[in-house]
Amino acid sequence: GDSVTQMEGPVTLSEEAFLTINCTYTATGYPSLFWYVQYPGEGLQLLLKATKADDKGSNKGFEATYRKETTSFHLEKGSVQVSDSAVYFCALGPGAGKSTFGDGTTLTVKP
Amino acid sequence: DTAVSQTPKYLVTQMGNDKSIKCEQNLGHDTMYWYKQDSKKFLKIMFSYNNKELIINETVPNRFSPKSPDKAHLNLHINSLELGDSAVYFCASSQNGGANEQFFGPGTRLTVL
Q1: Contact check, Cβ <8 Å, B42/A97
Q2: What are B2-39's pLDDT values in tens digits?
């Protein structure tokens, strides 16, 4: 079945550091790929997405490129801020009508 | 207007009780979901409904019963609550199943004492 493997956390960075959170997937067909972010005490919200190979999703300074050859969708940001502290989820869909989520990576950014 | 709303936001109850969580979406989506998030932030899908029809029913105890009275509502009823049911429960919705982004509610934190 479909699966998503995310870099294990927690990840702690200093403000303005470079961020990479790795995500690889296994899926049949050509799924869409997503990154969701969950701020403390809130529900998940879409951060960015890509629907086909070589697409780059971007939002709020975050980027991720859909790499079919390496089945990856790594999340990057050039300079993180304290306000980026959150849990990040990589996900793919569709798969039998549902999305498949990774285990989440907790990011803490220190001033 | 809130896109996906859940009530209540907090629910504290005793073992053995029965409780319900309600969810409503005003986005006109055709698919709704229930997820359980544990203390380690792992997110597990429980149920999915498409146009009021159950399409995903993961390995969830029979004590959990979803009900979708219409496309905009998906409620979750839990019988005989157990300590292990303590978690945050999220409702979500999307259009055309998992192909598009999901919109999540704010969550219901259930604590079973």
Answers
A1: no
A2: 799 999 999 999 999 999 999 999 999 999 999 999 99
